[in-house]
Amino acid sequence: MNAQTYLFPDREIITHGANDWKAFSIDGHQYLAVASFQDNNSVEIESVIFDVDAGYDTLQLIPTSGASDWEFFSVDGEYFLGVANFIDDQGVYTVNSTIYRFEDGSWEYFQHIPTEGAYDLEFLDAGEEKFLAVANQRDGENSYFIASDIYRWNGDSLVLFQEIPTYGASDWEGFMLNDVPCFAVANTFYPASQIYVFNGNTFSLLQSIPSLGATGIETFSIGDQFFLSIANGRSIFSYTTESVIYTFNGDDFQFFQSVETTGAFDWEYFTFDNQHFLACASYRDDNASYDLDSPLFRWQNESFELIDLVPTHGAVDWEFFVDNGEPALSVSNYKLGANHITNSVIYHFDRNALFAETLTQPEPPVLFPNPSSEMVNIQGVTGSGRYAIFDSYGRVIQDGSYSGDFSFRVSSISNGMYHIMFYESGLSISFSVAQ
Prior knowledge:
By secondary structure, the chain is mostly beta strands. 1% of the residues lie in helices and 66% in strands.
């Protein structure tokens, strides 16, 4: 697949270890903040807020210390920006993260929050209740098993509400399930990530989901389906692994689809012109190369299919926003080789190319018998490549290669629902085993 089939670079911006973009709008005016993690000499540098509608003029420079994330939120008609500060120049991870309030056209200090290697801030507005989750990734070198914090708005400021054990937390995702506040945390240094639900008093564990070096979580809805996608950064052996999309079945999250990713660091879901997309930020590969493509997927035929590969270097974040009336994607390019002073890019969409093709695809392969107790046959397969079989928790239980139609044995597999995924197309087909 040729890169940049549907995206073209509209603007390059020199950034310093860009670790996050955050787009936000105030009174109809569009802004874009970049979290500057480091230049080549220091982490105690300034992060930048750009005025998008004014041609990306610099609105304000904010002193930060290993900035990992920006979070924009509003409470009672007031606007706030929080920055997660990861580390200082002395190598100390116990540094304050900071909340700023918008006053008279600029961002002014509002509140400090004590953090330890803070990697993400996530605000959740649940109506009367408002929460801010902090992902504390580490408190020292190789010290990842620490608590992350959830703060609650008390009417005047954010106060500590609950500590939750995490394992190298890199991302929180806040969302509502049946009008109930929930948070999901991506644990980078633990083989599972967790989902918590608010019971009226505290957030309690709803579910643990297998993950491999998880660095990002994204939730979204398509029709009446609610999804949760996990960016799996690496397995024990390789940065090339499967990132997994789950769907909520009314009780818990079950495997829906997985796609092959390399050094996945972030998911960004977005929609425009009635189409649904997922962009993945590819950080690095097994050869310590940061100059690699990041994949773009589109929802079609009831699953996400790869449609584009975008050139990036050390990509850690995508952000969808509206740039002077046009849909746009900004990518945080963290580094190129050893150089952290590099270009991050604002992409625009070639709508003519994107929507010229029909979304009608060839009929998917036919799987039979279903359910099965012995052999499963696949017919209508075109081409060749790799496949994997996943259980309902997203665990790989069998994989192999195919070339055209093929069969596989399920006699040693327990009863239940399974999914076969074809890596080359991203197509996933469900089947049942009944012994």
